[in-house]
Design a protein that fits this description.
The chain is α+β, with helices and mostly antiparallel strands. Helix content is about 30%, strand content about 25%.
């Protein structure tokens, strides 16, 4: 291994060999002595009062461990933000599939029969199931007004803008729920010992979220709660907060049983009971000058949070901040709210609110182009943020980003001008239509606003007795490359071979709280802290003259061994220290929302079959500026995977709801794109660096989720001349649109010229 520069190279994945050889241990591979298996009895109605629970004969109930809300030793809630979600419903249920009882038995095959044999009598109450029903307050299902959270972002002065506008462009845009559909279903194992407390092992993203939840639920001090991440087969945000619920259930059963308890969801339970991407509705009203410049506008961004608050406030926050896209708004008012419905709570999903609001923004930019009479390319070029200008939150762009130049590169890479002209001619005849669409967007890296300051993340690097180095973080690996990239950063900082660095298994008894593995923060925020802690290890060895400045890898290993033998443990810690030039006002919701943004321009080429009304994506160009590419192969994989997932969001993955329950909770009727449905996804990077990230890195994981949906629908409109402003866009939607059905009128896209 060339030790000069490990960052920037596609080194082997740290966990890759174990995964491909079958040595990796997932939670369902783990077996403990005398272990019981568990199942959940769930609500069959969306809203109502529990009147009576009966247990049918024919089941050996005396062999079961049964847990209800009465068995909870602490607070009956899943502690997160609002602490409004009960671990187990006791009197009231607020959504289908809400947990009511837990059952455990040594024979896992007996559990489905037992669940069916539990009969629950309800007094039903009317439910609400859409954003519009929640807003009408025909029923109050949460608080006083069905509203979990609101935000207001204001910049400039709107009052006089409408009179000055040559065009006022209005539009309404909506996005549906989306299932994360990770490969490995949710699962957890718990043990309890009166002396040691609770230990849980599981498939998860955020060990310290679970740690916090179990402390409150089980009324235990921090040192008596231990959370260990097993190998995790995908997450995409779906294992951010919901594993706290499963861990809580396993822990309660383990406490009552005095034995280890394993809960593994099957695919259907995982799909119908756990969180999904928030459905959204965005309304734009934009004042535009004759030359196509945005003068100002109003944006209303609303998300459906489901029955409980969970992570809706932070999803709403990111969506609101990204709602103006990568454009300069001299004057803007963004009103955002999360409302309650009687569906299972919606939660984290890759992009975290930004894909919803950016879909609306990029569809709306094409509407503005039509109103002004210029091309979609030109309308974007005239409104791009420039260095020195301020975002909607009045964050001044300090980096030398040139979005116009990025746009030119994306157009050239996709052969956009020639294809645009060619498609216009081809579409005169035949049974298919071709189109090409673009989307420009940005994505903030790290927690929003004061979030990173609040987290105050800590990481550690350890020099080991064998001379190797170990990284101590609670950041988790679930396929995205955490272990590999953090090892690269450590090896680069210490000028060691990549093979000399290992990653500690995330275990709250062993690693510090380095924050959740979410929000595109791992490489940038945690990576920077790891870099600092690694340099601290080197300085600790250099200061007592155990190591010279220009040391070799062999000399480092010898000095490390000597230090540990003489002094014992060698560890250096690094805590997040907010940059002095990053300030956020939580009250005014104004300031530096993110330490850095990644920027992108995507181009989609589509064919619409006029016989089947299906959309095929023929080519896809993804150009992004990401600071520094730490691992080219992983970075490219992240972009390709994100684009593929966003294609599903755009054209395939429709959650069918009936009274708050998902009706297509299996992979035979919840349709996701397969490899044969995907186009060539051509990935290009630009690298401007980033002083706030390890070796210049920004976040990359969520960015590719934001742009494909609007690029694809812009391309569909280019092909057909008909606007579609809701996703997923299915063949039946296109058929109705072409037939002149109310879908076209219901898009509520209005253009007015003064």
């Amino acid at each position: 291994m060339n030790m000069d520069h490990i960052v920037g190279k596609s080194v082997p994945r740290k966990e890759g060999r174990d995964k491909v050889t079958g040595r990796s241990q997932y939670v369902d591979d783990m077996v403990l002595p005398n272990m019981l298996f568990a199942a959940t009895v769930r609500s069959q109605i969306p809203r109502g009062r529990i009147r009576k629970i009966t247990y049918a004969p024919g089941i050996p109930w005396e062999e079961f461990v049964i847990v209800s809300a009465e068995d909870i030793p602490g607070n009956n809630c899943i502690s997160l933000i609002g602490d409004d979600q009960p671990c187990l419903a006791s009197e009231l249920v607020n959504h289908p599939e809400e947990p009511i009882l837990l059952l455990a038995h040594s024979d896992r095959h007996l559990l489905p029969q037992a669940v069916k044999a539990v009969s629950i009598e309800y007094e039903p109450s009317p439910g609400i199931f859409t954003i519009e029903e929640s807003e009408s307050r025909s029923q109050t299902v949460w608080g006083k007004d069905n509203i979990f959270k609101t935000y207001l972002i204001e910049k400039g002065e709107l009052d006089g803008i409408w009179e000055k506008a040559d065009y006022i462009v209005e539009g309404e845009y909506s996005t549906g729920a989306q299932e994360q559909l990770y490969i490995e279903n949710n699962g957890m194992i718990a043990t309890f010992d009166t002396a040691q407390g609770i230990t849980v092992w599981g498939s998860l993203q955020c060990p310290y979220y679970i740690h916090k939840a179990l402390m409150a639920l089980c009324n235990l001090p921090a040192e008596k709660v231990r959370v260990v991440q097993m190998e995790t087969g995908g997450a995409f945000g779906g294992k951010e907060e919901y594993p706290s619920m499963i861990a809580a259930h396993a822990a309660l059963l383990a406490i009552k049983a005095g034995k280890p308890v394993k809960i593994i969801y099957d695919r259907m339970e995982d799909m119908v009971a756990t969180t999904k991407r928030h459905p959204s509705r965005t309304r734009h009203r934009t004042a535009v000058s004759r030359d196509g410049k945005i003068l100002g506008g109003e944006i209303e961004f609303t998300i459906d949070g489901g029955a409980y608050m969970t992570l809706s406030p932070v999803v709403l926050s990111r969506g609101a901040i990204h709602a103006g896209g990568p454009y300069y708004w001299p004057n803007v008012r963004i009103r955002a709210k999360a409302v309650a419905t009687n569906a299972p709570p919606h939660g984290a999903f890759r992009g975290f609110g930004a894909p919803q609001s950016l879909f609306a923004m990029e569809r709306h930019m094409d509407r503005i182009a039509q109103a002004v009479g210029v091309s979609p390319v030109e309308i974007r070029r005239r409104n791009f943020l420039q260095p020195g200008q301020a975002t909607t939150t009045e964050q001044v762009i300090r980096e030398p980003i040139d979005l116009g130049k990025m746009l030119d590169r994306a157009l050239e890479s996709s052969d956009y001008p020639a294809k645009k002209k060619s498609f216009a001619m081809q579409n005169q005849v035949g049974t298919s239509r071709k189109g090409i669409g673009i989307a420009s967007f940005l994505h903030g890296a790290g927690f929003t606003g004061s979030g990173e300051r609040y987290l105050s993340s800590v990481v550690g690097v350890e020099g080991c007795a064998d001379g190797g180095v170990r990284v101590l973080v609670s950041s988790t690996e679930f396929g995205q490359g955490t272990n590999t990239v953090l090892s690269q950063i450590t090896a680069e900082a210490l000028r060691l071979p990549y093979e000399d660095v290992s990653i500690a298994q995330p275990d709250t008894m062993e690693v510090p709280n380095s924050g959740p593995t979410v929000a595109s923060r791992t490489a940038m925020v945690v990576g920077k802290l790891v870099q600092s802690a690694a340099l601290g290890i080197a300085q600790t060895l250099i200061s007592p003259n155990l190591l010279r400045q220009g040391y070799s890898a062999q000399e480092f290993r010898a000095a490390c061994r000597q230090y540990v033998a003489t002094h014992g443990q060698l560890r250096c810690w690094s805590r997040y220290d907010p940059p002095t030039d990053i300030f956020w006002d939580d009250q005014a919701y104004r300031g530096e929302a993110y330490a850095a943004y990644a920027w992108a321009v995507y181009v989609a080429e589509v064919t619409v079959d006029l016989t089947t009304y299906s959309v095929s994506i023929d080519d896809f160009v993804a150009l992004q500026e990401v600071g520094k590419v730490l691992h080219p192969l992983l970075a490219r994989g992240q972009i390709i995977g994100g684009v593929a997932q966003a294609i599903g969001f755009s054209l395939y993955e429709k959650v069918v709801w009936q009274n708050g329950r998902m009706q297509n909770g299996q992979m035979t009727n919840y349709i996701m794109p397969t490899s044969s449905d995907l186009p060539p996804i051509r990935v290009f990077f630009e690298e401007l660096g980033n002083v706030h990230g390890a070796y210049g890195a920004k976040g990359i994981g969520e960015l590719p989720m934001d742009g494909p949906a609007p690029a694809i629908l812009n391309a569909v409109e280019d092909a057909l001349g008909i606007p579609f402003n809701s996703i997923p866009l299915l063949p039946e939607d296109i058929m109705d649109g072409l037939a002149g059905s109310p879908i076209e009128d219901g898009a509520l896209t209005r253009v007015g010229r003064r």
